[in-house]
Amino acid sequence: MTVMEFDPIIEVLEEAYEIPQLNATRKISALLPYDYHYTDKRYPVLYLQDGQNLFNPQAPYGDWAIDKSMAKLAEEGLSDMIIIAIDHGEEERVNEYLPYYHPRFGQGKGNFYIEFMVERLIPYVNKNFRTLPNFENTGIGGSSMGGLISLHAGLSNPGVFGKMMIFSPSLWISKTIFNNTKSFTPLQKSKIYLYAGAKESLEHLPNAQKLSGIIKEKMVKGHHIDFHFSINDLGNHAEVHWREEFPKAVKWLYF
């Protein structure tokens, strides 16, 4: 088979999926294994933020090219997962991904967004696709503000998200996240993949290292966390680096 034959099947759930918690709609897409319609398998799921930047080469700042990554992983026999891509809210993006009050950006709607995912989107996906709906097989991820809200979602819903793919999280905007990480109590074994670039901003890597230190301290104290911290010494805050990191994170979290 050629790489093209391993391409994931991309299905649009809805162009304007209703999010009553935000009084908004979003395009939501599913990337299914290339052989999804020829098997009766059930699959783990990864919910990713910033859907516009995940498999669209025309995206303004480049894309993660997750469709190409999944095709290559499929060649290695590592395609057994479903990815749900949720578009961001354009000018509302920061506010919707912000989980805490910020003096410049306001109260933030992040908790409403997570409520939508947990109460509406995840049940919809589990009903309409052949998923493995349990904690161990449900992951969440994103980059920048999408990484921040994914981390917050994982910390605040320990019985829902067993895997977190956190790329270059905007920790600077919500220092409360450090306290929430300290008080995080996983119900079962959680897997957290954290990535940071050394050239993203002056405080980015130190913040990520602080987060890493808190997580490692919890592991020493006996909390059930499997943790991987990846640092790119040349990495800046850009899609190209998240594209490179994505297949590594998928392998570590799911395979």
From TrEMBL:
Record carries keyword Heme: no
Family matches, as InterPro entries: AB_hydrolase_fold (IPR029058), Esterase-like (IPR000801), Mycobacterial_A85_antigen (IPR050583)
GO function terms (MF aspect): hydrolase activity
Entry-linked Pfam families: Esterase
Domain of life according to the entry: Bacteria
Classification via SUPFAM superfamilies: alpha/beta-Hydrolases
Region forming the signal peptide: none
Keyword flag Electron transport: no
Record key words, sorted: Hydrolase
Protein name from the UniProt record: Alpha/beta hydrolase
